[in-house]
Structures are given as structure tokens and as C-alpha cells.
Sequence to fold (279 residues):
Amino acid sequence: MVTEHSNSKRRALKSRLMMSLSPSRKKLKQSAPFPDALFFVPVAAEFDENLVFQVMKHFVSLGHVSTFVAFDVQGFIRSFRGRRVITRSKEKMIMKLKTLGLISLELNFPTILKTEYAEATAILGNLTPTECARTLRDFGFTIVSVTMGGLGSYLSTALTGEVYIPTFKPERVADETGCGDTFLTCFVLELLQQRMNNFQSSVQPTGDTKNVLEVTREQVIHAAKVGSCAASFLVEQVGPNGFQKRDAILERVKNGVPTEAPVEARSVTVYKPKKPTNE
Fold:
């Protein structure tokens, strides 16, 4: 009886809320600002590339294609079987990423794909980080970042080619949870900041006339360093307590101790897939 009453109350409250929103819903839809960035970062197949296509296609229909679209590989290469997380077959993983790349090319959005090196080798085989970054970019993404934890990352774009991005020495390492999300988010935020700076100063990035990023080579590398540096702050404390403001991050980018590019071994980390299947 308590549960039934509680559910009934929730339904009533939801109905009242929807009624109060109904008169202004159309107006809200028309006047709502476009987001500067979209992040598709599933953990394990909560949604698929079809949802990505529908969302991006909707933006195109509204005449807006300047939104940065960011992807994290992990949720597209993993799935659930019952309550167990499994890794998709290599063929399935490649198909999904190529589909995302084709969507990006077809709809002409600036896209950023982030993957750990271990994930990249699970998809592509025994390639170096640089080779992984370039191969994945050839699928159709504007930017690909292959991360290697405390060893830094490799970035691949048409503006930069394949370049090494260092991480920065933290004061201590207390908790590495969320570093990838922090890197990707702050990378994109700094790209947006640099693009806005260009608009405000009427700077026209030179180079490829198809530069959908609307930033320069140096600005892309700088933004990647900001993302990497933001993650170096996060690890210093447990949970989200390590987050820092942009000024502190920029100070460490300028004066911190960067890592050196590692020799490109064929296996920086060991990937242990959860029972590959043919799904």
C-alpha cells in the first residue's frame, strides 16, 4: 500500500509538472540555445550509433552543425549479457566505429574520439599509439586521442598530424578514477574557448579550407595539453575533489613538469577483454 501510494503520488506530480510546461513547451524548443558540445560517453551499450545519428541529424535539420561532438570508445566496444559486461568481437567494434565516423563525415560535424591505447589495440590489433590514432582518424573523425594514462597521449588531426601530448607531474596520485572523462571534457572546453577567442578577435585560422574545428594547429595542441593537465590535478585527491579552475590548469601547462614521449612500444598497457563474443 505504501509503494502504491508513493507511485501514485509521483504520477500525479509528474502530470502536474507536464501540464504546467505544456503551454510554453513549443516556445522553449524554439528559443533554447544550441549546446556548444555533445558528449556520447556510454559505459557499456546504453545506446548505440543509431541514437547518435538521430540526435546529430536533428541538429542539422535545425541548421546547426558547429557543435563539437565527442565520443569515448569504451561504451561502444562493450555490451551486456545479462548482468555481465562483455567485449564485442573485433569485427563488431570496427563496424560501430566506422559507422560513427561515416555519420561524422556525412553530417560534417567536428568530432573528437577518445580511446585508451589498450582499447585501441583490442580493436585494431598490435599497432603503435601513433598508428592507432591515425587509423581511427581515417574512419572519419576530426580528432582522435589515444591516451596512455600517466605516459601521456597521441593526438591525430589533419591540422597537426600525429603528435605526442604530455601529461603533467601531479603532486601525488591518490585516485585515478575519472581521468579519461576529465581529459576529454576539458580538452573540448578549451577547444571551445579557443574557437570563441578567434571569433571575438576575428582571427581566421589558416590552413585547410575544410577546417571544421575553426581553430589553429597550435590551439588544438594547447587544448589537448589543458585536458591532460586537468587530469593531473584530478588524481591528486579522491573523487572529484581534485578539480581545479582553468587558471590553475593553465599555470601548470606553462610551468609544470611534462612527461617525455615514450618509446613507442607495441604494448604500453595490457588489455584484458571480458570474454569476447561474436555479438
In short: Residues 2-31 form the longest helix (30 residues). Residues 1 and 44 are 36 Å apart (CA to CA).
